[in-house]
Amino acid sequence: MKRSILFFLSLVCTVLAFDLQGRVQWNEHCSGAAELGQAKVVLDNGLRKGSITQDGTFTIPDVPPGIYILSVIAHDHVFEKLRVDVLETDTLPEVHPYVPGTPLSSSTAVSLPYPIQMSAVHRLNFYTEREGFNLVGMFKNPMMMMMLFGGGLVFAMPYIMKNLDPEALQTLEKRQATISSIQSSIHSGDLKSGISALMQMGDEDANAATGKPQTESKPSGSSLKQRSGRNKKR
Amino acid sequence: MLRLLALWLASIAALPAFAIHASEAGVVDWYKPLIGDALTGNPNLSPVFHRTTQDNGNTKSLVLTATSSNVLSGLHPDNGSIAWRYLFEDDDRVLAFKKHKNRVAAVSGVGGATVRILDVTTGHLLHERHLHKPEAGRLLEPDSTGVALAFDSTSNVYALANGHTVRKIDASTGEVLWGWAAPDQASLNVYSAVLPTPSAVYLIGLAKSFASYTLHITALSPADGSVLGSKDVSSSIEQGPASLFALSNPAVELGHARVLWLEANQIKSVRLTPELKEKPTTVKGTAYRKLVDLGLSDHGLLVAIKDDGSGHVVKLDDEGSGLKVIWEFADSADSAQNTASLYTGGLDKAGNPYVGRVFWSHFYKKASAHILAPHLAEGKGLVTGYTFPFETGVHGIIGNVAIDAANPEEFRVIGRVLATTTTGAIQLWQQDQLQWTREESLADIRVAEFVELPERKLVEAGLDDGHETFAERVRRQISEARDFPHYAVHFVKRFVTGSYDSVSSSVAPTSNDTALSRDTFGFRKILVVATGRGKVYGIDSANGEILWSRLFGLGWAAEVGGRIFPLKIYTTKTVMDAETPQVVIVTQRRANNGLVDTVLFHVDALTGEDSTGKSAAAEMLPGIDTIAGPLVEAYLVRDEATKFVLLFDEFLQAHIYPDTSETSASFEKLIPSLNFALRTGQVGSFRLTGHRLGLQKEFTGKYIAHPTWAASLPDSEDIQAVVTRPHEPVASLGKVLGNRTTLYKYLNPNVVAVVTSSLKAPTPSCGIYVMDVVKGSTLYHSVLPATGGACDIKAAFTENWLIYHYYDDDFGVDQAKSYRVVSVELYEGSGVDSKISSSDLSSFANSSTNVNVIEQTYVFPRGVSAMTTTTTKFGITSKDLIVAGENGIVQALPRRFFDPRRPKRKPTTEEQEEWLVQYDALIPDDPKRVLSHNYHVANVRSILTSPALLESTSLVFAYGLDLFSTRVTPSNTFDVLSENFNKMQLVLTISGLALAILITKPMVRNKRLRERWYN
Question: What distance in Å separates residue A168's CA from the closest CA in chain B?
Answer without folding.
Answer: 23
